[in-house]
Every structure is written in structure tokens, then in C-alpha cells.
Amino acid sequence: MKPGMHEPGELDVSALPTFGFGHRSLMWWGTFGLMLIEGMIFALTIAAYFYLRSHSATWPMNAAPPELLWGTLNTAVLLASMLPNQLAKKAAEKMDLKKVRLWMVVCLLFSLAFLGIRVLEFTSLNTRWDSQAYGSVVWMLMALHTTHLVTDAYDSAVLTVLMFTGPLEGKRFVDVSENAMYWYFVVLSWLPIYAVIYWAPRY
After folding, report:
1. Measured distance CA(40)–CA(161) in Å, rounded
2. Domain count of the chain?
3. Does 6 fall in a domain?
4. How far apart are alpha carbons 53 and 58 in whole angstroms?
5. Residue 13 lies in a domain
6. How far apart are CA 152 and CA 191, in angstroms?
7. Is residue 185 a contact partner of residue 85, using CB atoms and an 8 Å limit?
8. b/e per residue, 4-28, with b = 16+ CB within 10 A?
9. What is the CATH number of the domain that holds 169?
10. Which range marks the domain in which residue 103 is found?
11. How far apart are CA 98 and CA 173, in angstroms?
12. pLDDT in tens, 37-89
């Protein structure tokens, strides 16, 4: 049989795209599964916080509640970052390279700004990680979330570079879209952590 010809009844799928967005992508399912696992880790750590609190006569233990300034500022930065993140996601799904490049750079700048403020957050917790149970669980929550921030900032930096240098395969736009989905997880998972770290000790 000549190349390009098919037996009667055969289905020619050679013209179908090799990538897809959303739930049609294996990357989407992988990212979704990762978020479920990491979300459970956050939930268990928050549960440990309240378990320790229920067994302590005073809370925080021998420490003042964390200062609100840097944590609140970082929360505002994170929430603001959702706009360029959504614009990067939409541009990727339209395969609009120019806009993907623009909004990925903006997203990366937001990530770096947040990480810079996060350093100041650690200095305003008013407790050490090894001081007592309260300090340990607070630092654990902060460290877990910071790990996700660093990971996503690195991923965003790599994707941004690839968008400028190539190769610009279709799957790269899928990567940008899924990276944006993961960033939503980073932002939304921070909100309960922020409430637990900064407001729970005040009530």
C-alpha cells in the first residue's frame, strides 16, 4: 500500500493535534492530582495547629501573635497576581505568543515580589521554629507554602525563558496554562493559612 493510503474502515488521525488544554491534557490531570495531595498536607498541618492549640492553656505559647503588616501585604500581592495569571492562561490557550510573553514576565515579577516580602514575614512571626510547639507548627505552615512559591517561581522562570528562546511547541502553551492553574492553588491555599497564622492567635 502506498504511503498516506489507508485500508477501508481505517481512521486517519494524523491530522489531529498532539496536545490539548484543560482536562484533555495529561498535564492537567497530573497537576490536579498534585494539588489534591498538597492540599491534604496543608489541611493536616492546619489540623495539627488546632490540635496543639486545644491542648495548650495559653496560645500562642510564650509569644506575641505575628505582626500583621507583611503577611497582609503579601496576601494583597497574591490576590493581585491572579489577574496577570488569568491573562497569561487565556493568552496561552489562544496560543498568542506576544501576550504570553508579556503576562508571564508580569507573573514572574509578582512571584519574586512575594518571595521578597515572605523573607520579611519570617522575621515578624515573633517565634522561632524550635522554641515550642506553637513556633514549630507556624514555621511548618510557612515553610510548606514557601516551598510551593519557590517551586512555582522557578517553573514560571523556566517557562518564561522558553517562551522567548524556544522551541515553541504547542505543548509549551499547555505548560503555561497548567502553570497558571497551579498558581491559583498557591494563592487560594494561602488564604486559610494566612487566617490561621495571623488571625487565629488573636481570638
Report:
1. 32
2. 1
3. no
4. 8
5. no
6. 17
7. no
8. eeeeeeeeeeeeeeeeebeeebebb
9. 1.20.120.80
10. 24-202
11. 12
12. 999 999 999 999 999 999 998 999 888 999 999 999 999 999 999 999 999 99
